[in-house]
Amino acid sequence: MPYLVAADLPSERAGWRFRALLDRPGILQMPGAHNGIAALQAKAAGFEALYLSGAGMSSSMGLPDLGVITIDEVCFFIRQAVRASGLPVLVDGDTGYGEALNVMHMVRAFEEAGAAAVHIEDQLLPKKCGHLNDKKLADPYDMAAKVAAAARARRHMLVVARTDAAASEGIDGAVARAKRYVEAGADAIFPEALVDAEMFRAFAEAMPGVPLLANMTEFGRTPFFTAAEFEAMGYKMVIWPVSALRMANKAQARLYHALKRDGGTHNMLGEMQTRAELYQTIGYDQYEALDASIVATVVPQGMPQR
């Protein structure tokens, strides 16, 4: 049953559960889940943690990934994923929504919404997708101050520092920044937009003992690698940020074109999730059973007196 009403709602804090997953052998695989139903489907497929992408959230709102969505809007997405699945969720915190105090506010808000971990990046606003050109980087000392603020504000949530420096400062510059961020309190490092296996391995070799996150986004600068290949290169986590959103959007566009062309959905039924499949995914019958167990019908006994 979805965790919104389940008796076995996780009692341990999300950040601690995320840490426990990281402490296990192997690489932690986190698909992007841009809403509650995606979170349920990822859980049903066997994943134990999820990723909430800034690009996924903004794109699902019809907006570009330029850091324009707000903390409250992100919290709405966090609550969906957490309530639906009960899984630990790593959340994209963009640049932290401002400076140190703003970062602290973000961390507390995300924790209260149920997030297990957050990553913040060393870009300046307006930020860009990490795989695009002409990204403007923050001063590493300013970014370190944000990391320190996040670490100070959190109660259980993990802080992941993302660096976009490889594209403009090379692997040595990215490593230097990453080491500064670890000193400031980052629990893990996310080196963005590395372009080949050699760069991934070099970064990992330069950061021994630090959990590293790899981003396997499609149509970007990184070639395709499997989770096992990232693990062999020294990475502890891997995300597929918007893969599910890309698939859903493509299917949705096909439906709208067919509906306009054919005047009905009759030619698309074979590509649709059935009503029964939807109800099974969201646990419809379990909600009904729970409702019946709480609100029992009371049969009047006799006639009331005037």
Short description:
This protein has 306 residues and is of the alpha/beta class.
How would you describe the overall organization of this protein?
The protein is globular and about 80 Å long. The model has no long low-confidence stretch (mean pLDDT 91). The longest helix is centred in the last third of the chain and has 20 residues, at 243-262. The chain has a 5-stranded parallel sheet. A 3-stranded parallel sheet has the order 1-8-7. The protein is 47% helix and 11% strand. It has 306 residues and is of the alpha/beta class.
Question: How many helix segments?
Answer: 12
Spatial strand order of the main sheet: 2-3-4-5-6
Residue share in β-strands: 5-15%
First-to-last CA distance: 47 Å
CATH-defined superfamily of the largest domain:
Phosphoenolpyruvate-binding domains
- Return the CATH topology of the largest domain: TIM Barrel
CATH architecture assignment of the largest domain = Alpha-Beta Barrel
Q: What oligomeric state do the depicted chains represent?
A: single chain
Task: Report the uncertain regions.
Answer: none
Structural class: alpha/beta
Number of strands: 8
Percent in helix = 40-55%
Shape: globular
Q: How many structural domains does the protein architecture include?
A: 2
Kindly report the average pLDDT value: 91
CATH class of the largest domain: Alpha Beta
| Spatial extent as radius of gyration | 22 Å
